[in-house]
Amino acid sequence: MQWWLLKMSQTVMFAGITVILSCGSSSGPYSSTDRSGTGSGYGPTASLKGRLVPATPSKSASNLYKEVNVRQDLIPNGRHARKYHRSMQPRYITIHSTQNFSRGADALRHSEALKNGKLRARKIRGFNRIGYLVWHFTVDEDRAVQHLPTNEQGEHADFGGPGNRYSIGIEMCENKGNSRSATIERTAKLTAYLMQKHKISLRKVVPHYHWKRRGLSQPHKNCPHYLLDNGHPGAKWQWFLAKVNKHYQAIGGSNPLPVGPSINSHGQIVTSSALPSRVQEKSYTPPSYKYHTVKKGDTLSALSRRYGISMSSIQQANGLRSSVIVLGKKLRIPNS
After folding, report:
1. What are the tens digits of pLDDT across the range 131-153?
2. Fewer Cβ atoms within 10 A, N terminus or C terminus of the chain?
């Protein structure tokens, strides 16, 4: 999301949490009542000239929506990020990750921040248009919270570009203790529901990376970082789309996938760049991380040797543009 307007390093305090204003945790167990990690049953799906032929629905869209556990907590109309009404006919769904690793920074806390106008961004012509950051849904391991109606524009992708003007923004929480796998599963279900509701094809489900942020030295953001490969969409992103497609088929998605990617007999997406057969929906687990608080004398090269992982991997996991690390900063260290 458009945290870069606050120069990436600025922080905001809300509800006792330090928010790292950068668009991006450790996994935790599912609760006994959590249904977000359960799969949706669906049969093999035929294809016709590259077009998806929906299988018989195994559940209703309303039941899938209930599984997502959406809590509507809209920013008050006319206040803060909704001071300006900007209508939208959604054509895309944009997936983000928060890169907010503070304990307790779940979907509810982000909702409070948005309602109270805490997520500010400098209003600059050609960049942020309203002086606030805002998106439509925040998802954590337990719920999805809605902040904006889906027929209103957010400020989460590409300034005045099509990402903000035509896409529904979904942020995935990364607070410490939050289950990443459950959050991804819940996000996939929400995405499938929104696809059917707004007649959006799977090819228009995109990562934040997809939208070019004109005027920045790095126009394509590494977001959501843990669903990209070396900062670019690849096998991990296809794995996520396959998960979305599975839930979409389960509700009898009535908007077929346009000609382009094809769907194999397991409901998985196969692109023209032919993914390895091992990259299937259940065969990839997003990387988990350990954490290291930078102490006096630490260097990036020393941490690389200590944890047996490359310096570039640490830089990528933390969005570092150089080898400089800040005393007291908590770094994510990918498991080797």
Report:
1. 999 999 999 999 999 999 999 99
2. C
